[in-house]
Amino acid sequence: MEENYTSITEFILLGLTEDQQLQIPLFIVFLLTYTITIVGNASITALIMISPRLHIPMYFFLSNLSFVDLCYSTNITPNMLVNFLSKKKTISVPGCITQLLLYSWMGILQIFLLAIMAYDRYAAICNPLLYTAIMTKEACTALVLGAHTIAILNAILNVCCTFRLSFCGSNIIMHYYCDVPPLLKLSCSDTSLNEAVLVFVSGSLCIMTLPMIITSYTHIISAIIRIGSSEGRKRAFSTCSAHFISVTIFFGTLFSIYLRPSSSYAMDQDRVTSVIYTIIIPMINPMIYSLRNNEVKEALKNIKGHVVLIFSKQHNFSC
User: Fold this and answer.
1) N or C: which end of the chain has fewer CB within 10 A?
2) Does the global pTM surpass 0.85?
3) With the CA atoms of 284, 126, 124 and 283 taken in that order, what torsion angle do they form, in degrees rounded to the nearest 10?
């Protein structure tokens, strides 16, 4: 691997746009987006940890998803923000390898967590009597550890396949982070094997997860339709539709970029599309999966009540 990229010691990231007049406005927009992402996901993770009523499988998976969103966004956005204000928009080869490794790891992990969460809701709604026997603490932990294992192996495969290639020409990456398709564009080696591996692995992982998500939501919707209360159906449909929209956006953007040959890559279009699942989705996930949830709202009210009570006791003591 070392011999392959000795002629290149760093890559240049072009970012979202080369228009200098847009650099500051984009910096402000993405700084605000990143702040919301960090605050939202960190708050949800902390709330689940300190609220006993949220210590159930659904929120265990949700806390893992929030952690993934934090890592996913932090792996890319800070470097992107620095490049908005820098004249030299570079990333070292080891930095590029690290970014690709973490990006591939967290991306696949998020896919599996979405599938696991869909199955968890299916078990809760369609098999309520067996739910506690199906989703035990041991089973939930095993599912998450299994997802991590598959995601890490996929990340290592992506990095090894990509950086076995020779990069002896341009070092300009037409993207705002290190990803496989733009790196394949730079290689002066034959990339047909890499493209085949990328499509095969991505397709296999989608075959493992997407049918589970679709089947789970199909059964969930069928069960919701049979709910007698119109208010109950409306509330359940509202939550499920939000979940399904998030899944559709995430998988749709992934398909549009990775399940096609490199000859059809349109880097300008891909840069904009990538913003959706690397920056926008991590920001909106807390709102979709938590802030619309009554149990989370109640937990927030309880925490707020405890904080107010503590402050009032301290005030009375000081007086």
Assistant:
1) C
2) no
3) -10
